[in-house]
Every structure is written in structure tokens, then in C-alpha cells.
Design a protein that fits this description.
The complex is a heterodimer of chains A (719) and B (398). By secondary structure, chain A is mostly beta strands. Chain A is built from 7 helices and 38 strands. Chain B is mostly helical and 398 residues long. Chain B has one domain. Chain B has a two-stranded antiparallel ribbon. The chains are: A mainly beta (719), B mainly alpha (398).
């Protein structure tokens, strides 16, 4: 692909020089884009989301190369970036860290709690990025940028833009909408307030997939009698958001915002019913709430302090789960709450000219910041005998009640520029973390009191041999300090019972990547190759029943038992991803993406030096998306295909995971067709025919199959 | 379109959001207060039975058992390390069970059975299954918590099949409520055992039902022992595709112990105390299953004939083992107080219908006779000797 790009360069004419400088400060936190420069990254714009009509924020990332979306439930989804997910991918919302101290090993549902309708842009930085973003950015970082209220300083008085959106889908009977008001109050104050609700029913797929080799349907999901509807897939969801912006000076703003997400009765599909339990048993998330509130000061604070961003944030994550066992007249209940306080201060210097000529200046710009995040956990569990209405609490919940975690760091990055053709970037971070949790004699839980300090670095070079072509090379380090889930949690995970390890050390990664970008007026090509080493990877090790914690009978009773450990060797993740965008005549554009990742690490089995695949690594996959738009009428037509090859390289933990068919997950190709009409900003109507060929498919590692052939209708108005 | 209106105070939207975020979370429930008036066990002064052991038989010189020679097709590792039988040499010849896997999760479920009975570490030093006393409601609650532990007894019992009956269709299983209703014999766990266990725990926790708590406990005990019986047979079948299930067959009988080792749990604890000869024959059957899987290492196993030889030997002995346990309870009725006798009768009334399949296959008349004899409400009207005699005729040999 790189060779092809070089060849095309010789024949093509550059449409525009690639902008090497970061943008000026704006109301919106543009730092995601600025920091992604020179990195392997992908972006999803508001317009793309409106036309693709994703079901969730993770779903909106489906067309980003190097990203796959695993779903353990219809109301849950977890982005995999370069084969990693969960604790190993950092999620940020407007620069505020979403990852809490209880993010689990493996996929989690938390990015689903970001309302896609409140998002202006999503960006994925692929590869280790902890120097810039801190702990957890091993596989990459997902940056969500919210929508802003309209603030036009030329307009006095009060201006209101009410808006409404509606969507209906036949695959799951989804019916929902959003109402919002975009209000400007005078020349300096603007507010965007909105709320949304949707009711999502059971998801109808194109039928079961068949396991590679055995050709038998995997045990999850459970299909209703029609052979298409997947049990345990409906949910209800409400969201609200309010964002106020006050212009303090022409380039300095204060922002106050709150974003709430409320999800109710969302079953976990692989446990509703469980693969080998009664079909009346069901684990559901009765309440999956997240509330994020923050206040920020953003802009330029003088000639020396540019792109200032001071953010004070509070995030509360509330999770209430219920395991119904009606045959046995019992329910198990769990509540886990996390309160996170955060402060982050970031800024940059103006670009200083150090030497050189006006045509080829040698410039220097620095970015720097400090941040700290504190998590407090409340966790409890109980059992209720429903036939006698008696409840008994257990001595501990999934986590240790009262556990605390503090993490943060200070970082500095410098960008040296030489003329318009060369940028050299380097940076370093000093990161620290501490965690503590009390013991629980009733469950033989050991107390935790641990801390870690680490130094990280990164370096990169971006060379533009011509205005159209950029060649890039980066070395970036990643870090993940063990969080409270690693250190204290006991839970039935997909592959088996997992118990804590209070002695874990941080895992550290280094990503080496080479990339090329070609931008012509009619063609854009981007290709990256990378290799990542992961030292001391925190991974699941099989344990015998004798190694289970005392007084934890469900551990020994489980088919498989795991404990998180630091792998003794180095894990390797390597791969490539690329995208081609072709602008054809008559308003037709075609975008194709492809990604491949290969990963293996040391076996955690005692007495062996064998290396084994890492868990849930996506297969070779990609997308093709074609779109035609008529500029005069606003009508657009599109078609998209998502495909994936078979995945038969399974980790030992995958073999016992009911979500993964025996022998591996079969490949697929799914075709979506879209048509729509947009009248300026005032009216937009879209209709999608999803999975037009009604192909049964499942993203590797998911509990659910994707929607079968179905229609999705969207309507949006704004006055 | 733009309209100018009076400014709305920005705090209004914040107030709305605050209401939404503050008012919606549901608190975790507190534990239900204990019923202070019902947590003292009621003792039965007439009891003579130890509280933590199976009901002891009178010293038994069982002529029938002594006369029960193994079949020619049986695996007999105790006879010169299997050198005198027709089985090829295999891993079981030394008489010990050699596990496929280091960990056998089924052991935890037999341990749970023992913890349902006694859990001194958590404040229950008296046996739930002790027929000489009436457990308090809180004891039932504590025991039910053990029964319902994740991946515990309930998790398997709700889907346990009786593989003596044909599977309805290959794609059906007893996870499905419709299959359970249509095939209650095959889906014995959810269809036959679970209702008894659930109702007994419920009534025991309420403490207000007309049935004596020790009777409820006896029904739970009998149902769980039958669950172990079904589990041994089921796991010996599915070992054909998952060798770890052979370990489970062994574990469900022994609780993870070797033939003469300590800490026998669940069914083997009962049988070993009552009739060691039968215990030995069950052990031979378990070793026969392991021997078959050693000789037939294909996956799935290929030698169905050898498999069924082993399983038939195991099942024959195991059925005798259950009959021995039942016999001990019938014999204990004679010397027991009325309350204790009711518990023994309740135990027997759960077990007898479950033995009916094989009893009827051997002698429909005796099967009818046994069912008729046990169809009493008052243990004093039970012809226990007649029932024991019928039982011995039906199940004379392991």
C-alpha cells in the first residue's frame, strides 16, 4: 500500500499541503486532533454518524481501520484498538478520562454509556499513547468530542434553535428520540441542553452462525423459536446533557457541562440465559448509569500560555445487576459504584522560531500538563429468596467496598519543526498510582496497599518529501497500572471465575510504527505497520481449585479458574492497517479500510515456555463504503460492506469462552444500503437497509450476532 | 428559523439534570432481619442417632451381598489387579483413581452438600439433616445460601438429566423449560428434584408450614443424594466427549477421595458407612469407567460396547448403594421417635419413586408393592420390614 501511494504521488497533483501546525484554541477541546498529529489515527465526524446511524458510540467506530467492536450484549459494546480493549484502551470525553479503577480485563460496556447523539466527533489514536494520555493507553485511545452550543458573537439577544430527532429500527424494534435546545443568550453565553430516550427490543439476527469445524451453533446467544430473535438483547436508555459556554475573552472560554446516561434492564446476552444453565436464568444490568460533570477553562491565557485547558471533573458510575434464577426462586444482586474526581491542566507554548530562514525556520513548540484522578469504590452483593422474601448480604461485592485509587502524572512534549517538511516530536511522562483496599476475613480477601511510579517516553518523526506525501515513524510507550478490578475483584468472567491478585505490577508497552499518508485531490491513502511489545502483561493464568482463595466456594466449583498475573515474558502485537479514499466524478466517493493484527504472548501455564495467541484478537477485517451525494438536492445514497475473515487463532482462555464458537469464529461479509435527504441543517431523513443479504454474522468474541436484514429510519429537524 | 424570547435562567436545565442524576439509583437492600423467635432448634429428646453421620445399620452380615459375585463382564481391580477379569490392562488396575485434570469442579459441589449439612465455621455446628432435631428457619436460609452458591449444586441440578431415559432429541436439552415439561423423566433435575428442594427450603425458611422442619430437611437430603446418583451416571456418559467428566463421575460419588482415603463426601460417605462391600463395588465401577477411557482414548470415545460395560457395572453397584441408604432409613424408623420417624419416612418417600424405574424393570410386582408400602402418611403405619424385604429382593447385589 505504501508503494502504491508512492507511485500515485508521481502521477498526481497535491490538492493541499498537509497542515503540520495544530489549530488555534477554540471553545471545543481540539486537543485530540492536535495530539493525534503524526500518529496513526482515525476519525468519525458528526455527518458520518448521521448517515450511518450507529446504535451507540462504539458502533460509530465500526468503519475506523484497526478498530473492531465486540458486543457481549446488545446494550454493551467494547472497542478493540489494535487487538486490545477494556483496561488497555483509554477512553476520553472532551479530555476527561472515562476509565475508572474498576474497568475490567477484557471487554467492558462503558463506552456504550457515551451518548452518540451528544458527540460531534470521535477519534481513535492507535497504538500506545500513555505519554500524552496516561495509564491504560496501551492499545490506543478513543477521544470523544462533544457537540457545542452555537456561539456567534455577532448575534445579540437570545437565539433559540430547538431540534428533535427520531429513529426507528425493525431489527430490534428500537424507537427513540431526542429533543434539544441550542440557545445563545447574549453575545457571550451559549447553552446546549438535550435529552433522549429509546426503547430497544430483542434483536433479530439472520440466524445462528456455525462453529468452524463442528458446524454446530454455539451455545450463546439463545435463540427464540423463530431461530432469529436473540434472547437477552433488549433494554431502555435515557440520556441528558447540558453544556454552557461563556466567552471570557475572544480566545478564552469557560465551559460547564453535565452528561448523564441511564440504561435500564439490559441483559448480558451470554448470561441470559447462560450457555449451560436454565433458559429462564438471566443476568441483567438493571441500572447502568454514568454521570459526568465538569467545568473547564479553555483558550489562550496570554502569549506564552496557549491552548490552556484546566478541567475539574466529577464522574459517577453506578451499576446494579440482577441474576434471576426463577426455577430456584432466587435472585442475586450486585451494586458497584465508582466516584471519580479529576483535575487536569494542560497547555502549550507558542511556536518559537529558534533559527533558520523564513522559508525554512527551525521552530519549537512544547505541550505540557499535569493531571490526577481519584476513584472511590462502593460495592456490595446479596441474595434474595424470592419465594420467602428474605435477603442476605454477602460480606463483599465484586470489589472491595471502600477501595481507593489515585493516579496521575506530569508530561511534557516538544515538537521541533524544520521548514514545512519536517517535524520531530518527543515527550516524556512521569506517572504514579496508588491503590488501597481493606481486607475481608469472611471471604479471605487480603488487604491491598500498593503504589507504582513509572517514567515513559515517546519520539516521532514526520517527513513530507512533497506537499502530498507524508512519511511517519513513531516510538511510543504505554503503561497500565493495575486498577482496583485487577487488585480486588472476584467475578464470573466469560472464560471462568477470576480472582484478584493484590501483588500485580504495571504492564508496559512500546509501540513501533511506520506510516505513510498520501493526499491528492482525488485520492487519499493512509497505511501503517506496527509492532508492539508488552512487558509484564497483566493476563489471566489458569489456576487449580487448590489455588482458589479460601472461603470462596464458587471458585473451586467453576469449570475454569483464573487469576491475573504479570506474564513473565514479552507479548507481541503486530499488524497493519490502512485506508483508501477515492473521490470519483459526479459526487461519488469510495472508502476502503483493512486491518490485520497478530498477537501472541508467553503461556501462563506452569512449566511451559510455549507462546500462545492473546485472547480475542480480531481476524483480518475491513470495510468498503461508497457514497453518492447530489449537491443540489441534498439527496445521498450509500452502500457499505463490513467483512472479516475466520478467526481460528484462539488463546487458551478463548477455548472456555462460550462467546467464541468451538474452533473459532467464522468470517462474514455484511452489506448495508443507505438513502437519505438533507436540507441544510434543518431537516434530515435517512433510511438504511442493514444486512441486505441477511447474512448471519458475529464479531469475534461477541455474545450476539449482528442484526439480520432490517430497516433503520432516522429523522432529524432543527429550527 | 430563529426566535427571540425571554432568557430562561440557565440554572433551570442544571436543576433538571441534577434531579435526574440524584434521584434514580436504587439502593442495595439490607439483609432481612432474623426471626429472633425461631432460631433455636427444637430437640427431639427421643433421638438416639448421632447428628453428623449417616444412619447406622445394625451390624450387617448380608448373606445376599456376600453371595453377590461380580459378573463375568465386570472389571475387578481388587482381584489381582484386574488380572483375572476380561479387561485389558489399564490405568485403573492399581486400584486408585487417576484423574485427567488437576482440578475437578464437582468436588466443590459435594463439599457444598456437606456444608449444607454442617457448617461449623459459619455458626451451624448442628446437622441440618440430623433427623433427631428440627432445624431453625435461619439454618434453612444459611443452607440454601450454600445450595445456591454460584456454580454450586443448584447450577447443575437445574439442568441435570437422568441418562437412564432417552434424550428426546439431540438438539434439545433440559435448559429449556418446554423440554423439562415434556420430558420430566429425562429432565429429572429440574422436573423431579428441584421442586422438592425449592419447596422444602421455602417451607423451612418460613417455619410456618405444617410440615416438620426435619421432614423438610430429609427431603432436601434425599433429593441431593439422588442428584449425585444421577450425576455419576451422566458424567460417565459424557466422559465419552470430555474426559474431565470421568473425573466428575468419580468426584460426584466420592467427593474427591480415593477408595479407602479420608474425607469421603456425599453419597460415598453414606454407602461406605453402611455397606463397605457395596462401596467397594461402586469403586470398581468408577475405576471401570476410567479404565474404559484409558483404553479408548479417541475423542469422542469410539468403543461404545466397553463404555456400556463399565457404566452398567457402575450403575448396578450405585443403585444398590442408594438402596442401602434407603434401607437404613427404613430400618431406623422402628426405633425412632415419631418426629424422627417422620423424617425417615420423608426421606424414603423421595427416594422410592426415583428407584421405581429400575425396580419396575426387575419386578413390576415388587415395584408396586414398594410403592404401596411407602404410600402412608404416618410412619407408625408403615410396614418397614416388608419394605426392606422388598427392597432386598429388588436390589440384592451391587
Amino acid at each position: 500500500m505504501i508503494a502504491g501511494a508512492l507511485g500515485l504521488l508521481a502521477a498526481g497533483r497535491a490538492a493541499h499541503a498537509q497542515d503540520l501546525d495544530s489549530g488555534t484554541a477554540t471553545v471545543r477541546n481540539e486537543r485530540g486532533s492536535a495530539e493525534a498529529r503524526g500518529r496513526s489515527s482515525g476519525e468519525v465526524t458528526r455527518e458520518e454518524m448521521e448517515e450511518r446511524a450507529p446504535r451507540s458510540s462504539p458502533d460509530a467506530l465500526r468503519f475506523v481501520p484497526g478498530v473492531t467492536i465486540q458486543q457481549t450484549a446488545h446494550g454493551q459494546a467494547s472497542p478493540f484498538v489494535r487487538g486490545l480493549t477494556g483496561q488497555q484502551v483509554l477512553l476520553l470525553f472532551d479530555g476527561v478520562r472515562l476509565n475508572t479503577g474498576v474497568y475490567r480485563q477484557g471487554p467492558n460496556q462503558y463506552f456504550f454509556t457515551v451518548d452518540a447523539q451528544s458527540i460531534e466527533r470521535l477519534e481513535v489514536v492507535r497504538g500506545s499513547a500513555s505519554v500524552r494520555w496516561g495509564s491504560d493507553a496501551i492499545g490506543g485511545a478513543v477521544l470523544a468530542t462533544p457537540r457545542e452550543p452555537t456561539l456567534d458573537r455577532a448575534r445579540p439577544g437570545v437565539t433559540l434553535h430547538p431540534g428533535a430527532r427520531l429513529r426507528y429500527g425493525t431489527a430490534d424494534g428500537e424507537l427513540g428520540g431526542r429533543a434539544e435546545v441550542d440557545a445563545q443568550l447574549g453575545r457571550s453565553v451559549a447553552v446546549l441542553v438535550g435529552g433522549a430516550y429509546r426503547d430497544v427490543g430483542p434483536l433479530e439476527s439472520a440466524g445462528p452462525i456455525r462453529a468452524l469445524g463442528t458446524w454446530r451453533a454455539p451455545p450463546v446467544p439463545y435463540f427464540e423459536a423463530d431461530g432469529r430473535t436473540q434472547r437477552g438483547t433488549g433494554f431502555q436508555e435515557g440520556t441528558f446533557d447540558a453544556r454552557a459556554v461563556v466567552r471570557l475573552r475572544h480566545d478564552l472560554h469557560a465551559v460547564a457541562a453535565v452528561y448523564g446516561y441511564r440504561q435500564y434492564d439490559a441483559p448480558r446476552t451470554d448470561l441470559c440465559p447462560p450457555a449451560y444453565g436454565s433458559d429462564r436464568e438471566c443476568l441483567r444490568y438493571e441500572e447502568q448509569f454514568r454521570t459526568l460533570a465538569y467545568a473547564a477553562l479553555r483558550g489562550n491565557a496570554g502569549p506564552r500560555v496557549r491552548e490552556l485547558d484546566v478541567v475539574l471533573s466529577y464522574q459517577r458510575s453506578h451499576e446494579r445487576r440482577r441474576l434471576d434464577r426463577p426455577l430456584s426462586a432466587a435472585t442475586n444482586g450486585f451494586v458497584d459504584d465508582v466516584d471519580t474526581l479529576g483535575i487536569a491542566v494542560r497547555a502549550s507554548t507558542a511556536r518559537a522560531r529558534l533559527a533558520g530562514t523564513p522559508a525554512r525556520p527551525l521552530t519549537l513548540r512544547a505541550r505540557y500538563g499535569v493531571e490526577a484522578w481519584r476513584d472511590g469504590v462502593a460495592s456490595t452483593s446479596w441474595i434474595t429468596f424470592t419465594d420467602v422474601d428474605i435477603t442476605r448480604r454477602y460480606s463483599r461485592g465484586q470489589y472491595v467496598d471502600g477501595a481507593r485509587m489515585l493516579q496521575g502524572g506530569a508530561w511534557l512534549e516538544a515538537e521541533l519543526g524544520y521548514g514545512p517538511h519536517l517535524r520531530v516530536r518527543a515527550g516524556a511522562r512521569l506517572a504514579g498510582a496508588a491503590a488501597s483496599a481493606g481486607g475481608d476475613p469472611m471471604s479471605a480477601t487480603q488487604p491491598v496497599d500498593t503504589s507504582a511510579l513509572a517514567a515513559l517516553g515517546r519520539a516521532g518523526i514526520e517527513w513530507h518529501p512533497s506537499a502530498a506525501l507524508a512519511l511517519l515513524a513513531n516510538v511510543d510507550q504505554g503503561l497500565r497500572v493495575p486498577n482496583l478490578d485487577d487488585l480486588t475483584s472476584r467475578q464470573q468472567a466469560g472464560p471462568g471465575f477470576q480472582f484478584e491478585n493484590p501483588s500485580l505490577a504495571p504492564e508496559r508497552s512500546t509501540t513501533y510504527e511506520l506510516g505513510a499518508r498520501l493526499r491528492l485531490s482525488w485520492l487519499e491513502v493512509e497505511a501503517w505497520g506496527y509492532a508492539m511489545t508488552l512487558g509484564g502483561a497483566i493476563t489471566r493464568a489458569l489456576r487449580s481449585a487448590a489455588e482458589c482463595p479460601a472461603m470462596t466456594p464458587q471458585c473451586a466449583a467453576s469449570w475454569s479458574r483464573f487469576q491475573l498475573i504479570n506474564a513473565t515474558g514479552v507479548s507481541v502485537v503486530a499488524g497493519a492497517e490502512g485506508a483508501v479514499r477515492l473521490q470519483l466524478p459526479w459526487g461519488v466517493s469510495v472508502v476502503a479500510t483493512a486491518a490485520f493484527v497478530w498477537a501472541e504472548g508467553p503461556s501462563t501455564e506452569a512449566g511451559t515456555t510455549a507462546r500462545v495467541p492473546l485472547s480475542r484478537i480480531p481476524p483480518l477485517n475491513g470495510t468498503v463504503e461508497a457514497r453518492w451525494r447530489h449537491p443540489g438536492t441534498g439527496v445521498y445514497v450509500g452502500a457499505a460492506m463490513r467483512w472479516a475473515a475466520d478467526q481460528t487463532r484462539l488463546a487458551p482462555a478463548d477455548l472456555g469462552d462460550a462467546r467464541i464458537p468451538l474452533g473459532g469464529t467464522p468470517g462474514y461479509a455484511v452489506l448495508d444500503l443507505r438513502i437519505g435527504w438533507r436540507w441544510r441543517d434543518h431537516l434530515r431523513a435517512g433510511l438504511s437497509l442493514e444486512n441486505a443479504i441477511d447474512s448471519p454474522y458475529r464479531v469475534h468474541g461477541s455474545s450476539i450476532n449482528g442484526p439480520g436484514r432490517s430497516l433503520l429510519f432516522t429523522l432529524a429537524t432543527r429550527l | 428559523m430563529q426566535r427571540s424570547i425571554r432568557p430562561i435562567h440557565p440554572s433551570a436545565s442544571w436543576a433538571l439534570a441534577t434531579l435526574l442524576l440524584l434521584g434514580c439509583e436504587t439502593e442495595a437492600p439490607d439483609s432481612t432481619p432474623l426471626d429472633a423467635g425461631s432460631d433455636v432448634p427444637i430437640s427431639d429428646a427421643g433421638s438416639v442417632v448421632p447428628s453428623d453421620a449417616p444412619i447406622a445399620d445394625a451390624p450387617l452380615v448380608d448373606a445376599a451381598t456376600a453371595a453377590c459375585a461380580p459378573l463375568a463382564s465386570d472389571y475387578t481391580p481388587r482381584a489381582a489387579m484386574s488380572s483375572t477379569d476380561t479387561w485389558p490392562a489399564c490405568v485403573s488396575d492399581r486400584g486408585a483413581y487417576v484423574r485427567f485434570d488437576m482440578s475437578t469442579s464437582s468436588i466443590a459441589r459435594t463439599t457444598a452438600f456437606e456444608r449444607i449439612h454442617l457448617d461449623a465455621a459459619n455458626g451451624r455446628p448442628a446437622g441440618l439433616f440430623d433427623p433427631s432435631r428440627d432445624p431453625a428457619p435461619e439454618e434453612f436460609t444459611a443452607a440454601r445460601m450454600v445450595y445456591l452458591e454460584p456454580e454450586g449444586l443448584d447450577s447443575r441440578l437445574v439442568r441435570r438429566t437422568d441418562e437412564h431415559h432417552p434424550q428426546p432429541t439431540p438438539s434439545n436439552d433440559c435448559r429449556m423449560a418446554g423440554v423439562v415439561a415434556a420430558y420430566p423423566d429425562y429432565c429429572a433435575g429440574p422436573a423431579r428434584l428441584l421442586p422438592v428442594i425449592t419447596a422444602s427450603f421455602r417451607d423451612g425458611q418460613l417455619g410456618t408450614a405444617g410440615t416438620a422442619p426435619r421432614v423438610l430437611a430429609a427431603r432436601i437430603e434425599a433429593s441431593l443424594l439422588w442428584f449425585f446418583y444421577l450425576s455419576v451416571y451422566k458424567e460417565s456418559l459424557t466422559c465419552a466427549t470430555a474426559t474431565a467428566d470421568c473425573d466428575s463421575a468419580w468426584a460426584y460419588y466420592t467427593g474427591g477421595a480415593q477408595r479407602g482415603g479420608p474425607r469421603h463426601a456425599a453419597l460415598s460417605r453414606y454407602v461406605l458407612a453402611l455397606e463397605p462391600a457395596t462401596h467397594d463395588r461402586i469403586w470398581d465401577g468408577i475405576l471401570a469407567v476410567r479404565c474404559w477411557r484409558d483404553l479408548d482414548r479417541a475423542n469422542p470415545a469410539a468403543d461404545a460396547v466397553l463404555r456400556e460395560r463399565a457404566r452398567d457395572q457402575l450403575d448396578r453397584a450405585l443403585t444398590r448403594g442408594v438402596a442401602v441408604v434407603l434401607r437404613s432409613r427404613l430400618r431406623a424408623i422402628a426405633g425412632a421417635s415419631p418426629a424422627e420417624a417422620s423424617a425417615h419416612l420423608a426421606f424414603a418417600q423421595v427416594i422410592v419413586p426415583l428407584l421405581d424405574r429400575v425396580a419396575r424393570a426387575r419386578s413390576p410386582a415388587d415395584a408396586d408393592r414398594l410403592a404401596t408400602l411407602l404410600a402412608v402418611t404416618d410412619p407408625r403405619s408403615l410396614d418397614a420390614d416388608g419394605a426392606v424385604a422388598t427392597l432386598e429382593r429388588l436390589f440384592p447385589c451391587p
